[in-house]
Amino acid sequence: MSGHSTYQPKTGFERWLDARLPIVRLGYDSFVDYPTPRNLNYWWTFGGILSLCLASQLITGIILVMHYTPSAAGAFASVEHIMRDVNYGWLIRYMHANGASMFFIAVYIHMLRGLYYGSYKAPREVLWLLGCVIYLLMMATAFMGYVLPWGQMSFHGAVVITNLFGALPLVGESITTWLWGGFAVDNPTLNRFFSLHYLLPFMIAGVVILHIWALHVVGQNNPTGVEPKSKADTVPFTPYATVKDGFAMSVFLILFAFFVFYMPNALGHADNYIEANPLVTPSHIVPEWYFLPFYAILRAVPDKLMGVLAMFGAIACLFALPWLDTSKVRSMRYRPTAKIYFVFFLVACCILGVCGAKLPDDPVIPHLTTFQLMGSDLNSFVWLSRVASLYYFAFFLVVLPVLGLVEKTLPVPDSIASPALSADANKG
Amino acid sequence: MLRKLSVIAAAAGLLVAGAAGPALASGGAQHAKDIQWSFEGPFGKFDQAQLQRGFKVYREVCSACHSMKMVAFRNLGDKGGPFYNEKYPNSNDNPWVKAIAKDYEVNDIDGETGDAIKRPATSADYFPSPFANEAAARASNGGALPPDMSLLAKARSAGPDYIYSLLTGYATPPKGLTVPTGGHYNPYFPGDLTSAWHGDHNAVPKGGFIAMAPPLKADLVTFDDGTKSTLDQQAKDVSAFLMWAAEPKLEERKQTGFAVLIYLVLLSGLLYASYKAVWRNESH
Amino acid sequence: MADTAVGATTEPEHGSDPSRRDFIHIAAIAAAAGGAATLVWPFIDQMNPSADTRALASTEFDLTKVAEGQQVTIKWRGKPLFVRNRTKAEIAKAVADDNVAMKDPATDASRVKPGKSQWLIVGGNCTHLGCVPTFGGGEYGGWFCPCHGSVYDTSGRIRKGPAPTNLVVPEYAFLTDTKVKIG
């Protein structure tokens, strides 16, 4: 909660600066003395981890641009130049490519934490919305970044996604041509994606600052969902949260290092090591793993325009979330029924992710043919996507609004300090 | 407790969906054989003798049709490469590299007349392509384009396993399969044989038709170190060489990774101890 | 929320050893800082010349193209290089000035290979601010730089003007009587 600043400038220089630009005071109030709920668990360390990911991507990205050639003729070869000839180029490239995946792993955990503990509920709606904006910017950045190596997946992925805009009635084709800068994805498209891919991360950084600002106005949520009521409920951010975040970042870096050094291409596609060829389509166009659930939702709907709307609708549900959930209880720790629906939501997202990577008409259970419905066998990934998509939308549009009105909740503790200090501290 | 259950439930859901078969084009290729390579695993290293044999196979057989334009002669002398020697840390000075380069001719422009000429390559040059451009390559190969070898081992999902399986996997086409002119049946080559198959429609053979005729046979290349030159050996060696060509920094990457992971584990330990010390008297 | 300076519950516990506790924090921070410092090196080294640039560090040149009294300018490491076939008069003039007072003293013999004093190979950039000097200007019979008036003699030594040192002689070696490897 914002309150009185307790910063005392010690040296003459500090006093001089504090009277002109109180930036040290701002840093002290936000990250040293800032009252943090004492019961935050490890799910709360992902904000710090995300900042680490953003910094890593920015630094490695700026270095890569020093060696990259943003032209259709030179891009692919310049990436190989980085991998083979630039000192430590292989390390910086693999850090950037795998760093994007790590960024999305962290952001999904961060968002799921928000969902489970009700961090989107009043007074944190703007905080949640800013987070959704960051997520959108991340998706745009990642999509454009993946096009830059100009491999087969880069190129054909760009073709598929830019063609989606053609589904819009009347203006669709003009918009697609405008996006391409030509009659197909080609050099002009690559160059503008390069420019925007460089720009967007700085916009993300800006929105992150707003996100942290909004957070500090309302204060952090915590696993009980009960706001801090007294000094007993909080600890100063430094060293209590700082050291915990530091430990969590170190463990996260182990996972990151494992990918970079031992499985650097596991999360990518072999086809992207083939130079882009507009005349040859890869047998299996698949987006990067973090887009797979939305790709599955897109393909679940038989109509092109409706599929595009469903895909964007899935993201729109996130924006509408604070107003969809009617529960008076914030944290699902005390909402046993909601917890079960949440677990199913998680499973549905994973299923959608798997479906996004499969061919729509491939059988889910091998060698089993059942009956045809709407042009596809029931035992097919497209039908599994439809069921999972249905649950995805139902969770936001039906479950959360209705459950809040009819569910039985567990008694919510009076304050943070009481459950933490009791012998059988609830860890759920 | 319920957190643990939910994670397990999610994992189970993922496993069920994931175990439902890989995404193959209907029919699809046979899974590549699983070979134990010297460079596999966290401590993998290239076997220099194998790389030299593999390079000989590439040079004497494959380079007639396949370019390797992202690999320079000097890379052969880099650390981890087939002709690396500690006495020549700068691969441009490596005498084996210079000797190999001189045997090749590369295109250049005469500085005085401006004519297009061919000159002997130096270690700084890249492997020249056998064909001037894609159209010429296709014209000489019945319309098919022999892919560049620089990244082939990373451009196929099973990598060197796939290359080895393909080279050793040529088989007599099963009865009932119509083989098109210029095509060769290979069960490891991706493709859909349903339309060329006249047998039992529930038993469409795996694989596809590749334009390349079986390129290797026993004793085709004599190995300087005396290794028996079986088809299997040639295929293994050239696959290992192509893996090096695609990822010359593999050894350096894995060695650095080991040091980094040890450091991070130690750092995590220190930070955990620090965390525990900070929170020692606080309820959490 | 009211002021939350360090609250009562965060005092160090009586009986624990503060210096032991502080050590672990120092160790952790030091380890993290050490790791960060090690990580910085690849990010700095990547700006150093890459392997393909280093490979083009040397070039071979055929001297039969340069007639006596002529000079050829070639591009080496991205910059001009003068390869001059000096006349006997030019060599004599250079040797005669060997012991004259100059800004960057050097004998002519130290700037050529033994037995091959007709061949002078020097970098084509003025050591003042990098302009390319022309031959035949200035009173020492050598090079003249039009930018700020530096004058070099027939051995490429700075004799007049703001340039601080002689034209740079690169590392080179004769492979045969008519071929040099530079760099």
Q: Which chains make the largest contact?
A: A-B, 56 and 52 residues
Count all strands of chain A and give the number.
Answer: 4
Output the structural class of chain A. mainly alpha
Biggest sheet, spatial arrangement of strands of chain C: 5-6-7-8
β-strand percent of chain A reads under 5%
CATH topology of the largest domain in chain A: Cytochrome Bc1 Complex, Chain C
Task: Characterize the structure shown.
The complex is a heterotrimer of chains A (428), B (284) and C (183). Chain A is mainly α. Chain A folds into two domains: 23-285, Cytochrome Bc1 Complex, Chain C (Up-down Bundle); 293-421, no CATH class. Chain A is 61% helix and 2% strand. Chain A has 15 helices and four strands. Chain A has helices at 12-20, 23-31, 46-65, 75-84, 89-117, 125-147, 152-164, 172-180, 187-218, 237-262, 292-300, 304-324, 336-357, 381-406, 417-421, and strands at residues 35-37, 234-236, 372-373, 376-377. In chain A, a hairpin with a 2-residue loop joins strand 3 and strand 4 (376-377). Chain A starts with 11 loop residues before the first helix and ends in a 7-residue tail after the last helix. Chain B is mostly helical. In chain B, 37% of the residues lie in helices and 6% in strands. Chain B contains eight helices and four strands. In chain B, the strands form two sheets. Chain B has a two-stranded antiparallel ribbon with strand order 1-2. Chain B has a two-stranded antiparallel sheet with strand order 3-4. In chain B, a hairpin with a 6-residue loop joins strand 1 (105-109) and strand 2. Residues 16-26 of chain B have low confidence and may be disordered. Helices cover 23% and strands 23% of the residues of chain C. Chain C has two domains: 17-45; 53-182, Rieske Iron-sulfur Protein (3-layer Sandwich), CATH 2.102.10.10. In chain C, a hairpin with a 4-residue loop joins strand 7 and strand 8. In chain C, 24% of the residues are buried. Chain C has three helices and ten strands, in the order ααβββαβββββββ. Chains in contact: A-B, A-C, B-C.
Brief synopsis:
The complex is a heterotrimer of chains A (428), B (284) and C (183). Helix content of chain A is 61%, strand content 2%.
